[in-house]
Amino acid sequence: MRLDKLISHCGYGSRKEVKEILKKENVEVNGKRVKDGKFSVNEVSDNVTLNGEVLEYQKYFYYMLHKPEGVISATEDNRHKTVLDLLSREDYRDDLFPVGRLDKDTTGLLILTNDGQLSHNLLSPKKHVSKCYHALIEGIVTEEDVAKFKEGLVISGDEECLPGYLTIVSVDEKLEQSRIDVVISEGKYHQVKRMFEAVGKTVMTLHRHSMGGLILDATLSKGSYRKVTPEELEQLQKQKL
Question: pLDDT band at residue 240, thresholds of 50, 70 and 90?
């Protein structure tokens, strides 16, 4: 691994920022000062220090984020704030990415990681990883709708959906609105919104509560995040089985 990449991945900023660190600070590899970011190091066996502090390399990182409205599920964008912009400087890494996407106006659980294999296991159509959403619906959701979801809907573009499990939480007949929970095991574009469109209703607000058995921490406010615990990571990794 390049030295500048290792330093960046240890939480010392972008490659550009690390370049300045190498120029100005005392970076040593196995006791010898190195200023060249291209210098090759073994992240496991080499001893790398910055001003005398040993850099502990960690390969994979996992964060649970409570995504707010108005933020896009991307790593960079010239016009909009991204989910990576919500990270502190200490936690930011240029190899992190969101596992899947939530629409700009959708809130809730989003996993940020640099573990490509875990992301693949959670998103692969063959795995059928479950995702639970809470939603406010314009219209009265009925038991007929519940049955249609369970059968599997054909949505716009003639796309067929696997069965979804819809629960009616409450109905406000005066406002003609319904609160529901729905569990799906796919990740088609705008899937939940299109499923309700297929039964003549409109999603007003959408919030992802869980994914792959990982439940959004109720103590996380919108826009905040924390590291995934070892127990939670184990739950996510079971999805590859």
Answer: low
Class of domain 62-125+214-238: alpha beta
According to CATH, where is 3.30.70.580 located in the chain?
A: 62-125+214-238
Give me the CATH topology for the region 131-211: Alpha-Beta Plaits (3.30.70)
- The identity of residue 194, as a single letter, is R
Q: Is 103 a catalytic residue?
A: yes
Residue among 94, 95, 103, 217 flagged as catalytic:
103
Which amino acid, one-letter code, is at 159?
E
Q: Which run of H or E residues covers position 166?
A: strand 165-172
Q: Which fold has domain 3-54?
A: 3.10.290
* Ramachandran angles phi, psi of 54, nearest 5°: -70, 130
**What is the rounded CA–CA span in Å between residue 7 and residue 19?**
10
3-state percent helix, strand, coil for the chain, nearest multiple of 5: 25, 30, 45
What mean pLDDT is predicted for residues 84-109?
A: 93
H or E, element range at 42? none
Q: Whole-model pTM above 0.85?
A: no
